[in-house]
Fold TetR/AcrR family transcriptional regulator.
Amino acid sequence: MVVADREHLHVLQEEDSSKRRQILDGARKVFMDLGFDGASMGEIARAAGVSKGTLYVYFADKSALFEAILEEEALQYGQVVFNFDPARDVETTLNDFGQAYIRLLCRPGGGSAIRTVMAIAERMPDVGCRYYLRVLDKTINRLSDYLKAHVGPGDLAIDDCDLAASQFMELSKASLFLPFVFQAAPPPSEQRMTEVVDSATRMFLAAYKAK
Amino acid sequence: MVVADREHLHVLQEEDSSKRRQILDGARKVFMDLGFDGASMGEIARAAGVSKGTLYVYFADKSALFEAILEEEALQYGQVVFNFDPARDVETTLNDFGQAYIRLLCRPGGGSAIRTVMAIAERMPDVGCRYYLRVLDKTINRLSDYLKAHVGPGDLAIDDCDLAASQFMELSKASLFLPFVFQAAPPPSEQRMTEVVDSATRMFLAAYKAK
Amino acid sequence: MVVADREHLHVLQEEDSSKRRQILDGARKVFMDLGFDGASMGEIARAAGVSKGTLYVYFADKSALFEAILEEEALQYGQVVFNFDPARDVETTLNDFGQAYIRLLCRPGGGSAIRTVMAIAERMPDVGCRYYLRVLDKTINRLSDYLKAHVGPGDLAIDDCDLAASQFMELSKASLFLPFVFQAAPPPSEQRMTEVVDSATRMFLAAYKAK
Amino acid sequence: MVVADREHLHVLQEEDSSKRRQILDGARKVFMDLGFDGASMGEIARAAGVSKGTLYVYFADKSALFEAILEEEALQYGQVVFNFDPARDVETTLNDFGQAYIRLLCRPGGGSAIRTVMAIAERMPDVGCRYYLRVLDKTINRLSDYLKAHVGPGDLAIDDCDLAASQFMELSKASLFLPFVFQAAPPPSEQRMTEVVDSATRMFLAAYKAK
DNA sequence: TATGAATGAGACTTCATTCAT
DNA sequence: AATGAATGAAGTCTCATTCAT
């Protein structure tokens, strides 16, 4: 056991050994296309251009590979620049954020991680939970912090900023995300996304703008 | 088996022959708990109290059984009385609907159908699509129709009622559904659900109440 | 031990180059603990503190490594000084031998070689055969030779000394070895081993002491 | 095949449903030839003339199949009529038993169970232990009981009957079993077995016959 | 010489599905 | 109709071995 750990450590230290990169890229595609159960290690190996055995050199098992991908997803999410500079005005900030957020969700393959994780959350609750906290909840918190900074006379009148942040994010998805993720509609057009986020921003400000 | 003949002539056709009922009930539980891939026909047979072979007497294969359950789910959803009587006033109607809606989603096992269907939407797009249309979109449309009936001076000022309906539904889930479905939080308390839907209603009216 | 001296010679062909020694020591432990099939080359490499590739520098394959260990085992066995000096009296010689023999078999890990070789004797008959001849049969023969030297009036009356030697060895194991090797009992106590070998010696002499 | 018709009975539960019998027979052969690790489920399926999947209908896993065979082995062992009728005289009883015992051990494939179980006793201690208790220890106890019944003036003078029983069994194997099990010699001849057991009996009585 | 990354065959096991009764 | 025995394809994972450095 200890040995295995060490062996993995050695490999893991080189975060971007090219084989590891290949595997993660191939696996992401397969996992997101087919879901955790639908993806087979053979398919992943083929997609990654390595042998099946090699997968297990880099990742202890299928779950570990899956979680490594979610880890990356979380990091990428964190690197998306949601500009929550408190100096910026609320309307612009919210609108920019909403636009970026919905485009992230509805990019081709964009809902896949959410969908895929959601799918196994019942059988692997800790995976679901961690993904939520690291990705979704974190974004809520950053927006919430921004809002808090603007609560005050002449700015925003919000009682529960966490709820408000969540509300704005939900509003930004309205009529777009569900049809997309259920494959009932193609990815929304640029124009439609703009409209929806504009509407969300208006609605949010109508409710929370201090008088 | 002469005596039995008379009975079994039509039983198979009948939607609710007792065996079929048993199977659907057992299968729903297993599918919702474990997901499409995680559920095995053996487990389903056990949960239904029938033999594995019998499953194939009533359903062509695993997918057909799964879709039959979604069919039922859609019917049940349709039977939930969302009281959209145009005669009722907007605030009460929206609030009542929001309360019922979030309780439906967050009931134990409530997110399961959504989660389960979402999970296979990429591999079985028509299943995902049909579920969306028959369940989610249908609800949106009914709410939208209600809203349309109230658009007018002194009532609601809404440009895009479909979007507005979707917005209200999304608002009703804010901060509640995602943590629940990702297993990052237990089902929300009654009080919290009430608060969130109250806030959603206020927000909606702040934005759309005609002046 | 003379090992320290040897290390100053850098003769790579030498049987006991330090790496080779490491490998043999690590491999013995793993093979004896887990059996031929249960032992993996990876585990052996770890136990030996070398890389997997290095194993194949010194040994052609897993079997060759295993046989090299049995070779050593045979040599060590041969070096255990069973004092069969013909000048010693029979009772003492037998008893001393029996005591040493049963302690050898029942030492922690003692039955392991026998067990391990036995296990693969059917698939690798020559390995089993050679081990028997070089280890077990050799001991029988040395005891047999000792007995032959004492056959005569006033000493021992034995017709078939090979059989007699084998009999004494079997008697020395009675009630001790099988429970131990089948893990049905912990290693026998010192006192019990003494009693059993004493009994074996008495029995042997009762049967073979010349009158 | 005419017989085949009769075999299509629903008798999975029965201990000797024909498929179960087939599997056990095929598996015994493969396990005994190749050892637990060396035997593959595919090979066993082929030897049994069933599909791999069928093996798992009857046995939970490879270990369970293996243990079922040991179970049978134990039963068969128990059914070997070792005639320990206390009314029989000691010499005949011992000799008959010894003859039967060594023939059991050295029959073709006879040492295989012992060898095979011994081989995995380290990794599966409970299997080893149970086999020892159910097969070997049980036989010792039955012989021991017989001996106890004959301890007395003019019959046997034995202090530790359990030890004595074990001693006789070990003596009966002397020079025969080890070469056989290590594949260093073919199964012993009838004549040789007779000689060895005769010698064992003489030796035993020389030591334990009451004076 | 020594390494360890990489491989691919093959192990055990599961499971949707079929078939005879 | 209902069963349950049987199947075989496919899944995850292990491991002896090779090869470039």
Confidence is low (pLDDT under 50) at residues 1-13 of chain B.
